[in-house]
Amino acid sequence: MRDIARKFRALPLVSWMVWIAIAVIAAPVMALPTETPQDEADAELIEAVELAAEQDDADVELIEATELVAEPEVELASEPEAVTLGTGESAGATSEAEPALVSQSVSDDLADPAEPFDFDERAVETPEDGALEPVSETDGADGSPNGDVDLDDGPLTEPSLKLQTAAIQEGDDFSARARMYGHYFLESNVAFVGAVDLSTGDAFSDTDSTGFDVTELYVVASPPNMPELRGAVGLIELTSFFDRNSFAKDSLTHFINPVFQTNPALSVTQLQSQPAALVHWRPIDEVILKAAAFSSDGFDDLDINGVAGELGVDLGNLIVRGTYVSATDDGDRDGIPESFQINRNGVFGTQEGDREVSYGINAEWFIPELNAGLFGRYGYQRNADLDISGNTYSFGVNVLDLFMDDDRFGVGYGRQLSDDDRRQGDRPDVLETFYDIRLAPNARAGVSWQIRDEFSESFLGLRVRADWDLLELFD
């Protein structure tokens, strides 16, 4: 698989950059409002009224036309909703009587490849009406069955295939990515998930490399009658499942700087797209447990030598996660910066095979009265072979619907992974503020301003993204 990826990376840079740019520019055009089924129904009703007015029995025919228009809505409401593998964890303001929700965050805002299968604690921010896909009515708010549906009757959930195009200009650095991702259910509790990226630049921390890359390709399943226990095996983007946060995770929705995305202490300990086996278990509503075993060197040297675990505590509007990762260095030389001051047998810094261990704590707190969310992270990483350690931290706030519906404003301060005792230059910190708005139903744009390295440098950032449901687009 990696060999295939390398061949695609050899494609001319300009050709696929132009392709991505065209897709991004076309987003607002394709997002122009189109006639909805309800609009069509209204039009039919108007025609029926006009026709009825020309006839003697106008009142009777008007009633019949009205019933015809309303009939599809009744049938749609009576159909069983799709069964998915989501945990059924609703937002903090959602009562247990309301439908359970699949994704952790508003699906239009976070387009992670594992989006339908975020077996994570639900987002603490209040979702938009209809923005999240409801789990089947046979699942209670806690994800437990309360109906008589037989899960062996076959898949009830429709397949999904989506495309996201995005571009980020950060100072003089340009990044662009086209991501296609989707899922297909074999049974109501077994599905395949996949994601492929075509990208350039370094702004996307959840994309392993530039060029063509298979980001995810795995099978996910839940034992019959045990929706609280789920597992996945294959090529998994581990950051889609570990160290999630509703207010500091995605560079296309939240902050652009990577210190606010995945905890740097965890990401340099090979928490990325890896061949892995993952288990998610929610024994009670307030506790979420995750564990994964993975190959630190990917498919290049397939060996299950890395482990990750996470304990999440859900207290309503407050979610706290503690994460542990142990792996061997993959030779990318992306560890603690101060480690490259250390000479070991003529080689400075980390070396492939070094044993690395990291810890992270992650908290988010949504305040409904302010429609705002606070977040904070702390991370610690240690290279046992070099006997060096470093830490990192970040904190900030997001405010939703500040100036208009569906906008987002954020301010955050963070410091990259560093060893305070060995550091000789400026502190690798950043103060970032961003403002993000919706341009169209499937397109967003944002602006960011960063001040880095003890307020010595500033960077202006611009971004645009667009999302399409390909199955609906070509239906």
UniProtKB/TrEMBL annotation:
Q: Which InterPro entries match?
A: OprB_sf
Q: Where is this region: Disordered?
A: 73-105, 126-158
Q: Which family does it belong to?
A: Belongs to the OprB family.
Name this protein carries in UniProt = Porin
Natural source organism: Leptothoe kymatousa TAU-MAC 1615
